[in-house]
Amino acid sequence: MTLVYLMINGLQIGSIYALVALGYSMVYGIVKLINFAHGDIIMVGAYSTWYLMSRFSAPAWLAVTATIVMCSVLGVLIEKIAYKPLRKSDRLSLLVTAIGISLLLQNVAQLLFSANPRMFTNIFTGSVSIGERQFSNATTVTIAVSIVIMLLLTLLVKHTRMGKAMRAVSEDYETAQLMGINVNNTISFTFALGSGLAAVGAVFYCCSYSQIQPTMGSMLGLKAFVAAVLGGIGSMPGAMIGGLCIGIAESLTKGYISSQLTDAVVFGILIVVLLIKPSGMFGRRMNEKV
Amino acid sequence: MPKLLKSTPFRYALNATAAVGLYAVIMALINTGILNRYQALMLIPIGFNIILAVSLNLTAGFLGQLPLGHAGFMSVGGYAAALFSMSVNLPTNIELPLALVIGGLVAAAFGVLIGLPALRLKGDYLAIITLGFGEIIRVIILNLKFTGGAYGLKGIGRQTTVTWVYIFVIITLYVISTLIKSRHGRAILSIREDEIAAEASGIPTTYYKVLAFSISAGFAGIAGGLYAHYLSILDPSTFGFMRSVEILVIVVLGGLGSLFGSVISAVVLTILPEMLRGFAEYRMVIYSLLLVVVMIFKPSGLCGRYEFSLGDTIDNFFSMIRGSLIKKGGGSDDASA
Fold first, then answer.
1. Contacts of A278 in chain B (CB under 8 A)
2. What share of chain B is helix, strand, coil (3-state, %, to 5)?
3. How many domains does chain A have?
4. How big is chain B by its Cα radius of gyration, in Å?
5. What ipTM goes with this model?
6. Nearest in space to B56 (alpha carbons), one of B261, B286, B203, B287
7. Would the pTM of this model clear 0.80, i.e. be above it?
8. Least CA distance to B282: which residue of chain A?
9. Whole-angstrom Cα distance, residue A229 to residue A222?
10. Which helix (H) or strand (E) holds A110?
11. Higher-pLDDT residue of A102, A290
């Protein structure tokens, strides 16, 4: 009985991780950058939905749509302003810039909304009962919508022109350019898509964990990143399955061992994966050319 | 005369004199009251930030790897030093250095333990795995009994003085700058320039990577010990990812691969927030903005790879005077002709 609940809870938080991990993975696949600011996009999404709903009493669907658009724009802006000038310089400076942007977003949020946590009212109230078991709507909607989004995303990457361009750019940046693909647009599109997914993840996260803080994104983002590494960074099915695995592992640790040790278990998984198979479950092994 | 100026013993004597002289100046400023009690106390955080930045620069700037778990080593060293000094009862001037050395050694041992597996990875993956280890260290300290758990470790003797901090800053700078100039240092630099080429030239890259990593961890541990005996309380939540990032910001702003840059930037970035007390809430915004702007416009940091050398500066000064004298002589010759 508890096992089923723990698994369902794990799937719920896992699908949020998967949505965020997809953003990490797509961006890494294309620009080879661990986008540390990605976690903070979640935070921005959470604050923006909360603000629109509590201050302007906007209906939920409008607030969520506006948030998705805003986060996508923010993602593209960050890429254009901070990452694009450094595309040719070494990876270390790019990584440090990403950390800087992440700090910036956190501190601006702290300035605007203070460090005190805000309460987010659940959009998906009520619950459904399947057989004898009751599940809150937040749980079922999160899992169902995430699955639909992942299916749509797979179709987009496999069957549209933009998806083809994304795959080509991540395969070989310069050759793609020679083949007439607009690399800048493709990268912007990837950032927009990833940030949009993070915004959706943010809304789902807030519906079940209700507290919003300026620093909420960093741990959530790090765990989603672990999920991306577990699945094989750069691989989309990997990010999805990795996210679900991390979610379930976390939920089982909480249920059977100790809720304080969840972070240690997640990072332990990361270390084991990196040591045994750094390319993850679905990643391709990359050899360095001399 | 120029030969004497360039000889190693002379350079050592010069630098030792300068170090003692600077200490005398600082002490005089404190004793005469020009630096008030509060400002004198600020010298201690400046000192351990210098040690942290310089030690991180060894791995980030000279070895060319990006570790994101420096605060983890700092906490290990801090707890080891504090637990030692709390369990023994020796005169302060023996207990503190002993505790610091133990803290440093324990942190260096952790450096080897973590470095051996972690340094098999490169670049981004190394950054992430050290981040993971840093977080795990924090969670473990949080859940252990003898570290005080989430309540922190209280009642550590306030033994850190300006003198001890100064001594350890000088030791750190001496060890790391001579290490870099040595044969081992050149091996470390060659790994930064091209790891594959270094390995092909017969340099045991794993050995040197772990060596640099654990030395860096050891000094972070010493800084942690100084920190513990300065605040007299250790709270595991202060050693999170953000702390590592703060140290990284100091190093990157000063210049990856410039010890001089790290020292200057540690001094400035420790004093600046104190001066900006009135704008406390803008402090971190300015910090992060500065980091991004510097990265975009000057990715090599403010000092690049510039190193300050007292001997060279004096040499240059003398040769400048000589040069201008000769020029003057030449000028008068022209006029008479």
1. 121, 125
2. 80, 0, 20
3. 1
4. 22
5. 0.81
6. B261
7. yes
8. A111
9. 10
10. helix A91-113
11. A102
How many angstroms separate the CA atoms of B18 and B310, rounded?
9
Answer whether residue A125 is part of any domain. yes
Q: Which residues from chain A sit within 8 angstroms of residue B298, using beta carbons? A: none
Q: Do A85 and B287 touch (CB under 8 A)?
A: no
Residue A226 lies in a domain: no
The tens digit of pLDDT for each residue in B324-334 reads 887 765 544 44
- Number of Cβ within 10 Å of residue A116's Cβ equals 9
Alpha-carbon distance of A71 to A47, in angstroms, equals 11
B127 and B25 part of one domain: no
Q: Per-residue pLDDT for B57 more than 90?
A: yes
Distance in angstroms (rounded) separating the CA atoms of residues A284 and A282 = 7
Q: Mean of the pLDDT values across residues B184-211?
A: 92
Query: CA–CA separation, B75 vs B90, rounded Å?
Result: 23
Lowest-pLDDT range, A91-95, A177-181, B12-16, B56-60? Answer: A91-95
Return the bridge partners of B234, or none.
B153
Chain A: residues touching B (Cβ < 8 Å): 32, 34, 82, 85-86, 89-93, 95-97, 99-101, 103-104, 106-108, 110-111, 218, 222, 225-226, 229, 258, 260-261, 263-264, 267-268, 270-271, 274-275, 278, 288, 290
Asked if A90's CB is within 8 angstroms of B245's CB, the reply is: no
Residue in A93, A264, A278 closest to B295 by CB: A93
Asked if the structure places residue A234 within a domain, the reply is no
The domain that holds B50 is classified in CATH as 1.10.3470
pLDDT bin (cut points 50, 70, 90) of residue B337 is very low
Which of residues A248 and A58 earns the better pLDDT score? A248
Query: Strand ranges (DSSP E) for chain B?
Result: 153-154, 233-234
| Cα A93 to Cα B296: distance, rounded to the nearest angstrom | 8
Going by pLDDT thresholds of 50, 70 and 90, the confidence category of residue A2 is: confident
Chain A residues touching B281 at Cβ < 8 A: 110-111
For residue B300, being part of any structural domain is answered with yes
B136 closest CB neighbour out of A95, A99, A264: A264
Average pLDDT over every residue of B282-306: 81
Shortest CA distance from A86: residue in chain B: B296
Q: Which domain holds residue B226?
A: 36-325
Closest residue in A to B289 (Cα) is A104
Q: Which of B196, B285, B296 sits opposite A86 (nearest CB)?
A: B296
Is residue A122 in a domain?
A: yes
B236 close to B78: Cβ distance less than 8 angstroms: no
